[in-house]
Design a protein that fits this description.
Number of helices of chain B: 16
Largest sheet of chain B: 4 strands, antiparallel
Strand order of the largest sheet of chain A: 3-4-2-5
Strand content of chain B: 5-15%
Mean pLDDT of chain A: 83
CATH class of the largest domain in chain A: Mainly Alpha
CATH architecture of the largest domain in chain B: Up-down Bundle
Distance between the termini of chain B: 37 Å
Number of helices of chain A: 10
CATH topology of the largest domain in chain B: Multidrug efflux transporter AcrB transmembrane fold
Shape of chain A: elongated
Largest interface: A-B, 105 and 104 residues
Mean pLDDT of chain B: 79
Number of domains of chain A: 2
Number of strands of chain B: 6
CATH class of the largest domain in chain B: Mainly Alpha
Strand order of the largest sheet of chain B: 2-5-1-6
CATH superfamily of the largest domain in chain A: Multidrug efflux transporter AcrB transmembrane domain
CATH superfamily of the largest domain in chain B: Multidrug efflux transporter AcrB transmembrane domain
Low-confidence stretches of chain A: none
Structural class of chain A: alpha+beta
Oligomer: heterodimer
Low-confidence stretches of chain B: 149-154, 327-336
Distance between the termini of chain A: 47 Å
Shape of chain B: rod-shaped
Structural class of chain B: mainly alpha
CATH topology of the largest domain in chain A: Multidrug efflux transporter AcrB transmembrane fold
Helix content of chain A: 55-70%
Radius of gyration of chain A: 31 Å
Largest sheet of chain A: 4 strands, antiparallel
Chain lengths: 369, 568
């Protein structure tokens, strides 16, 4: 009961887990080269630059499809998109090949003329690739570090692009730091659940297979799930972010934490096989294995805490989260597992008695017939 | 399974040396692999997942538009150290521009540079291929925006007026050319004529200046006097004498008059000579003035020719604009001008920082490092103006720096981990001997991991820098479990039996543990974010090897050590 209340209280923290998608923050911030990179990003607006890549679909067979990205239809679309994006309040500037025309209806219908115009504009080639199969729109914005704001902004930009008529056989991709962070956000959420789920299913299957019992498998698995829930809850309460470095911790903690439950259960069963009753078997197994698993758990935690000395923040975050995870699972195994072992045995006994009762009833019924 | 484990346990208990010997051979092979282990850095690209539209797009942009992740930036910042010093405080200083230009020229020669762009390139482009020499000129160019403002221009009319103006200028210039030609010809002629006049005058003056010989006349007069005396003394008649003397007197008078007139004439000639000399000097001055006028005329001629070329250039430009206007029939007016300032990509708004962007060709890690070394060498050998800080950044530079961090990080974390674990196991067993034996699992396991990494050519990157410490933390568990159980069983049984019971009972849970850990590490790589996949691989090897060492090396050493203890 205490465990359930504790799990619910700590587990509430899971909803507080925030995502850290700024990869730059996972690099050692004290290095001169990173400091310089950050400074350049601040001064030249690299961090909040969204790029819209407009490409010709080379596989497109349509006759009237643009064959050169300077096609009037494409330039007109660029002008339209640019004018829509400029309306967004956080946008500080938008530049593209369409910037030279201001209004889409002012774009000449003749591609040769457009080529002549670009030829006369210094540095206009910066907006095009060498074979004129793609062009670039650069959007500078002031977004700050809020993941929510970034997400909202990227959605708005994508909406603006969709609102403008697109010529056939043109692919548009929104990229740059903010859209990549949005992608990472989705991936972090997906990967966390996916890797944890895969690991959980395989480990549970393995435990059931080895123990040749569903309940025994669950018995070893329960402290793992409890420890994992506590870890994620504590991550939320301790404000530890879910990042590219910590996204796999669920799977790792499950993999590493299995050891403690396995050793405890194996030893308990060993004592039970010797003919000891539940209490005596537990009293023998817990201290003998307990010291071993506490010792090995502590050394694992020490090994992970050593990562706090690493220069890469991602490795530090990984170390502290894993240490927390191992501690939670160790605690769950030593404190909660004995209770679960007893509950499981009693459940099995009751189930067997119930089955026996059913069997007897069946036999009686047959006799009466 | 249980029987196999028991048989193996019996074998270990009886022949620990064989097991240990085989493991030591493996370890020696691993030492060879260890010497081949390489470290590598990592870039932003490595941290991002693959096969995602947005990431593919950014890679495509990098390759096609030269904004590749593989670009290095030379960052030049102002950083004055002293107040009121002559150090540079504005990046638009001509010295800075010149310094950037020198750096660019040197960097351009390094192999692997695809393109290099900085503020000096744009300045040169805008300033007819020359670096501006004054700060005011640099500021003027940097503030210059390419403005396409169609609202304030009625282009066709303006162009036709401009054309007419140009034609006028051309006509004027042609007339001016004729005038200049005539003037030059006239001046040349005048100059020659003046020279000749001057020469003639000087000759006359010289001639005039020569003294006339009056002594002959005086001698003639005295000779006449002597003749007159001789006549007086002669036997001639008085009348004859009177007649001859009369002639002689007349001659004398004539000679005296001649002398007087000649003296007067000489004086007049002298005055004329002075005047002629003055005229000659004046003519010389006029002549040099004409020479100067000739030079001026030549200059004017050159100027006219240059102007003509300029006008012809403008004229052909106008022709092209005319063509554009003919094609572009949009006579309507736009309201907003388009502004493009290229410097914003290279010079910070506060004019404290400027960057040189170098795009690199596709090259391997080693070549990139060599490139960065060359770059650093160029920066250090190029004399920079006082008050500037120059640094390098960009993905390859960060990668190199992160690579440099791998080994120190590994040493630091591994050392801390090893010491911490050693203390814990010694406290746990309250025995130095058992503490050290339990460490053998991680000792051997890590050597084998290094061996595999070295022999397979898998480099250690930044994310793997904490791997050894993590393997130690996880792998020690196996050592602890084996030693812990053996000690418990040893209290009740003999060495061989204790080991047999130990291995029979810990092997399965340890195998499950290893499998579960491997599942955990493999699952980690199954997501789209595979940043820690390499770490997962390393950990998988580590856990597996620690398990193997725990069931081979530790039991063998435990048995040998127990037997030695008994012998003592």
């Amino acid at each position: 009961m205490i465990t359930v209340i504790l799990t619910m209280a700590i587990g509430l923290g899971i909803q507080n887990i925030h995502l850290q998608t700024d990869i730059n923050k996972e690099l050692p911030q004290n290095l001169d080269v990173i400091k310089l990179q950050n400074k350049i990003s601040d001064k030249f607006g690299g961090a909040d630059t969204v790029m819209v890549l407009i490409k010709l679909d080379k596989n497109c067979k349509l006759e009237n499809a643009p064959k050169d990205i300077r096609d009037p239809k494409v330039i007109r679309m660029l002008v339209g998109i640019e004018n829509e994006i400029k309306k967004e309040p956080s946008v500080s500037s938008v530049q593209s090949a369409g910037s030279f025309f201001v209004y889409s209806e002012k774009v000449p219908d003749n591609i040769e003329l457009i080529k002549q115009i670009f030829a006369k504009i210094p540095n206009s080639e910066m907006f095009f690739n060498k074979d004129y199969s793609s062009t670039l729109m650069i959007i500078s914005a002031d977004l700050g570090s809020s993941e929510e704001k970034i997400n909202h902004f990227v959605s708005k930009i994508k909406g603006d692009i969709k609102s403008v008529e697109k010529p056939a056989c043109i692919d548009i991709t929104v990229t740059g730091n903010p859209p990549i962070r949005v992608v990472l956000m989705k991936m972090l959420e997906h990967d966390m659940i996916f890797t944890m789920g895969i690991a959980a299913i395989i480990i549970l299957f393995l435990l059931i297979l080895i123990k040749r019992s569903f309940t025994k498998g669950i018995l070893v698995f329960t402290p793992l799930i409890l420890g994992l829930t506590w870890t994620l809850g504590l991550m939320g309460w301790l404000n530890t972010p879910l990042s590219v470095a910590t996204v796999g911790i669920g799977a790792m903690i499950l993999g590493l934490g299995t050891e403690y439950g396995i050793f405890l259960v194996e030893r308990y069963e060993e004592e039970r096989e010797k003919g000891k009753n539940q209490k005596k078997a537990l009293i023998t197994a817990l201290p003998s294995v307990g010291s071993g698993i506490i010792g090995s758990g502590t050394t694992t935690i020490v090994g992970f805490l050593a990562l706090l000395l690493a220069s890469m923040p991602m490795i530090r975050h990984l170390g502290e989260t894993l240490a927390l995870g191992i501690f939670c699972i160790l605690f769950a195994t030593v404190v909660v597992s004995p209770a679960i072992i007893l509950i499981e045995e009693r459940f099995i006994e009751k189930a067997e008695k119930f089955e026996l009762k059913l069997l007897r009833r069946g036999l009686k019924h047959e006799k009466n017939n | 399974m249980k029987k196999i484990i028991e048989r193996y346990a019996e074998f270990v208990a009886k022949k620990p040396h064989i097991i240990l010997g085989v493991m030591i051979v493996f370890t020696l092979i691993s030492f060879v692999g260890m010497s081949l282990v390489k470290t590598e850095g990592m870039s932003y690209k490595d941290m991002l997942p693959e096969n995602v539209e947005e990431i593919n797009a950014i890679n495509y942009i990098g390759d096609e538009f030269g904004t590749s992740g593989e670009s290095v930036m030379v960052v030049v910042e102002i950083s004055p150290k002293y107040a009121n010093s002559n150090e540079i405080r504005d990046i638009r200083n001509p010295e800075v521009v010149e310094y950037i230009d020198i750096l660019e020229q040197k960097i351009r020669k390094i192999q692997g540079v695809v393109s290099i762009t900085g503020a000096s390139d744009i300045l040169k482009e805008m300033n007819s291929g020359h670096l501006p020499k004054t700060k005011s000129k640099i500021i003027e160019l940097m503030n210059k925006e390419i403005v396409i403002d169609q609202s304030s221009l009625d282009l066709p009319e303006a162009l036709s007026q401009f054309s007419e103006g140009l034609e006028g200028i051309e006509e004027g210039m042609s007339a001016e050319e004729q005038i200049i030609g005539g003037m030059t010809y006239g001046l040349n002629g005048s100059s020659v004529a003046l020279d000749q006049i001057r020469y003639a005058l000087l000759s006359i003056a010289e001639g005039m200046n020569q003294e006339q010989d009056l002594t002959q006349i005086t001698q003639t007069i005295s000779l006449v006097d002597q003749i007159e005396n001789l006549v007086q003394q002669s036997n001639a008649t008085q009348s004859e004498k009177m007649e001859i003397v009369g002639y002689l007197e007349g001659l004398k008078q004539g000679l005296n008059t001649m002398t007087t007139q000649m003296a007067e004439a000489h004086e007049g000639m002298q005055q004329l000579s002075t005047s002629l000399n003055g005229m000659a000097n004046a003519l010389e001055n006029i002549s040099s003035g004409i020479e100067e006028m000739k030079n001026a005329s030549l200059l004017l001629e050159n100027l006219t020719s240059n102007l003509k070329e300029g006008v012809s250039g403008i004229s052909s430009g106008l022709d092209e604009i005319h063509k554009y206007l003919e094609l572009y029939e949009g006579g309507e007016k736009n309201e907003k001008p388009m502004k493009l300032n290229q410097f914003k990509y290279y010079v910070s708004d506060d004019y404290t920082t400027t960057i040189i962007r170098i795009n690199l060709a596709e090259m391997n890690e080693e070549k990139k490092e060599e490139f960065i070394d060359d770059l650093e060498h160029i920066i250090s050998e190029t004399k920079k103006p006082a008050g500037l800080d120059v640094g390098l950044t960009g993905s390859p530079v960060i990668s190199k720096e992160l690579k440099n961090q791998v080994k120190p990080t590994m040493q630091k974390t591994s050392m801390f981990s090893l010491i911490g674990i050693f203390i814990v196991v010694c406290l746990l067993f309250l025995s130095l001997r058992y503490g050290i034996i339990s460490l053998l699992a991680i000792g051997f396991g890590i050597i084998w991991v290094y061996g595999v990494l070295g022999l397979s050519g898998m480099p250690i990157n930044s994310t793997m820098s904490g791997g050894i410490s993590m393997i130690m933390g996880i792998g020690i568990d196996f050592g602890i479990q084996v030693v812990n159980r053996f000690r418990q069983e040893r209290k009740k049984h003999k060495i061989e039996k204790a080991m047999k019971i130990t291995l029979s009972n810990v092997f399965t849970p340890m195998l499950i543990t290893t499998l579960a850990a491997l599942i955990g590490f493999r699952a980690m790589s199954l997501g789209q974010l595979t940043l820690l996949a390499d770490l997962g691989n390393m950990m998988s090897f580590g856990v597996l090897f620690c398990f193997i060492a725990a069931v081979t090396v530790i039991p063998s050493v435990l048995i040998i050590s127990e037997k030695l203890k008994i012998k003592k």
